[in-house]
């Protein structure tokens, strides 16, 4: 299998987003930025994310062959004669990431790194994805653990700000992925994955997205309400949240694939603006 196929197995775009989440959490917690710490945090987060991504490719290779969006993935195309061998790569990446996190940072960072990979690889992919519409809701905790890992690299003890930010990531995930699920509803239906639009249709799913986003925007104000972040953050969270809710409302009125696509990318824009507001407010 060519190197490019192995790189595809790592899902580097998702890994980059998970890593960015941890970095923003680190910046929100630290009083003095260390480039060495930042680079090490990026490395261990990418390793943990890559390990669960490789496992996801292995476990979902059967439905990946059927879904148009994923049919070209290496394991779906049978690039390896014995695909189970790729599990050694997944295990090695996770062990390396956890080991480096324990050695350079502390066991709490390593624990959150492991839990993030576990929730995506096992809880979401194996236990929930093909069984219940709650797959995205519970599986979304993987992103929350990235927040906790970034904060623990500065302060291992639990404190309010990373818990608030982890809650924001928890509520962000369903709004983001239910929009994607509306776009890909027929593909999910074809492979029997019970994503919410498959079960209740686009209209009701759009209402769930709006309701969830209301919880998301409300939770995003907690760091300001409790004095953990300032007015710059509050303004950024409020304005970006208002735009997100407006786009969600438009999708409720017109629950088409095109509108779902707009909301899918809109949720990414929202999270990016929220991250910028956190960094500007703290630094």
Give a nutshell description of this structure.
With 283 residues, the chain is mostly helical. It has 14 helices and no strands. The longest helix has 26 residues, at 257-282.
Task: Provide a descriptive summary of the structure in words.
With 283 residues, this protein is an all-alpha fold. The protein has 14 helices and no strands. Helix 6 (107-128) packs antiparallel against helix 8, helix 8 packs antiparallel against helix 9 and helix 11 packs antiparallel against helix 13 (231-253). The chain starts with a helix and ends with a helix.
Strand and helix layout:
Blueprint: H1 3-9, H2 12-29, H3 35-59, H4 61-66, H5 86-105, H6 107-128, H7 135-139, H8 141-152, H9 160-183, H10 185-191, H11 196-220, H12 222-225, H13 231-253, H14 257-282
- The CATH class of the largest domain turns out to be Mainly Alpha
- Poorly predicted sequence stretches spanning 5 or more consecutive residues: none
Helix content: over 70%
The domain tally reads 2
- What class do helices, strands and sheet pairing give? mainly alpha
- State the order of secondary-structure elements, H for helix, E for strand: HHHHHHHHHHHHHH
CATH architectural type of the largest domain:
Orthogonal Bundle
Measured distance between first and last alpha carbons: 45 Å
Kindly report the name of the CATH homologous superfamily of the largest domain.
Answer: UbiA prenyltransferase
Shape: flat
Number of helices: 14
Mean pLDDT score: 95
Please name the CATH topology of the largest domain.
Tetracycline Repressor, domain 2
